[in-house]
Amino acid sequence: MSTGDELRAAVGARRDLGPDFEDAIVESFLEKMGQEVDRRVDERLATLGPKGKGKGKDVARQGPSEGQRLALAIVSLALGTVVTLAVIFGGKEMWVIAPIWIGVVMLNGIFGSRN
Questions:
Q1: Which of 11, 52, 67, 114 could form a disulfide with 63 if both were Cys (CB 3.0 to 4.6 A apart)?
Q2: How many CB atoms lie within 10 A of CB 104?
């Protein structure tokens, strides 16, 4: 049964059974969708084979891509800035800022050095 068919069946069952069974219907639908996602991921991983593309590295051992590194840098700097501003405007002790930024630097350093 396709994803659309599953959704239509869940909506139809909800309509027929009423709101009392809504939680069970939603849980059942989500379980089926989770199984479908797992199946698709397994299919894609099977097409890669035991080794990654070209360089002979295991897929699980490949480091983060440049896009992932950039995304982490942007998100961690944004969150670090927000937390710093919250500390400043929240009247907290200023020494809390140093560990926040040390953590940001360490996180980006560790993630960026993985190859």
A1: 114
A2: 19
